[in-house]
Task: inverse folding
């Protein structure tokens, strides 16, 4: 019976492919359901923009970020993922046959370091001699904080840097007073801002142009399933365009999917739209090089990066490709 069932299943799969039924697939998106990186994918799935006669994205594999997202991508039958740029760089430089194929989020304008109301910290320079929190060593928040200090003419030794962990732990540490200021990520900032006081926004002390996430795939999959990759790149781009054209409607879709508070989600979306948070896919070398600066500051990179060896733009429309 088992052998007959397997034979029947194989026949049905072949038949579905032959007559053009889309195959349901899952791709990887870092911090899915916890941050806003994945919003364009949520929109595209809801609208059916990933679906082709032979392919469809019906599920998202999440992770806590970093190398985990890359490993999840590689372990999937559909090795397409949006991951942190540093994780992609590290994986490719370690010998993995991967390529960066589009940009996901290209700004850190949304990042804010905050304290408790009534504290005498009104600017980044007011933090001299104070305890300042970030998530984890070599994280984007660690990089951005050190870059902001550098651009403000400060040194890391001017403050006591504290690695706190996750975003919830940072909020608790600020409210409890165990640190003087810490990065407060969305949606926590919007949800809790009545209990907080902004010390500085990254966009006000340094250029916020910095590529946070990128899309990756394997060289083998590019040769094997270019149709699937094109569907993801095109569908995600439509999702980004929809967000910018209809932020309130987009917020409703994402809030319903993740069971988030609708009004908080709408407020966050309105702010992220102002910052042009999501890229349509085009790679920005200035933003990617800003991430390299961050990696060097935290001691994770030495030497230069030849981007031409890491990226492949064949799935991007001509107007989004880097000018040669």
Result:
């Amino acid at each position: 019976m088992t052998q007959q069932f397997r034979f029947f299943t194989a026949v049905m799969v072949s038949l579905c492919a032959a007559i053009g039924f889309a195959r349901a697939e899952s791709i990887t998106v870092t911090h899915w359901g916890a941050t806003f990186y994945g919003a364009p994918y949520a929109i595209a799935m809801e609208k059916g923009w990933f679906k082709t006669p032979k392919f469809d994205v019906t599920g998202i594999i999440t992770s806590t970020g970093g190398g985990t997202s890359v490993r999840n991508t590689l372990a999937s039958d559909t090795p397409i993922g949006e991951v942190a740029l540093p994780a992609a760089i590290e994986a490719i430089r370690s010998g993995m046959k991967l390529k960066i194929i589009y940009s996901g989020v290209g700004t850190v304008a949304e990042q804010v370091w905050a304290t408790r109301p009534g504290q005498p910290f009104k600017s980044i320079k007011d933090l001299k001699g104070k305890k300042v929190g970030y998530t984890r060593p070599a994280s984007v928040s660690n990089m951005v904080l050190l870059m902001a200090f550098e651009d403000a003419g400060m040194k890391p030794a001017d403050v006591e840097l504290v690695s706190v962990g996750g975003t919830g732990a940072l909020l608790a540490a600020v409210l409890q007073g165990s640190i003087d200021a810490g990065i407060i990520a969305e949606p926590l900032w919007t949800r809790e801002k009545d209990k907080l006081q902004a010390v500085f926004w990254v966009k006000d002390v340094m250029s916020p142009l910095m590529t946070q996430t990128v899309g990756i795939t394997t060289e083998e999959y590019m040769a094997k399933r270019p149709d699937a990759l094109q569907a993801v790149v095109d569908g995600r781009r439509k999702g980004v365009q929809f967000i910018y054209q209809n932020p309130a409607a987009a917020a409703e879709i994402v809030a319903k999917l993740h069971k988030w508070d609708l009004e908080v989600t709408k407020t966050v979306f309105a702010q992220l739209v102002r910052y042009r948070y999501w890229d349509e896919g085009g790679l920005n070398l200035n933003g990617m090089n800003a991430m390299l600066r961050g990696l060097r500051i935290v001691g994770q990179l030495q030497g230069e990066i030849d981007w031409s060896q890491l990226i492949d733009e064949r799935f991007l429309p001509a107007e989004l490709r880097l000018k040669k």
Observations:
- The chain has 13 helices and ten strands.
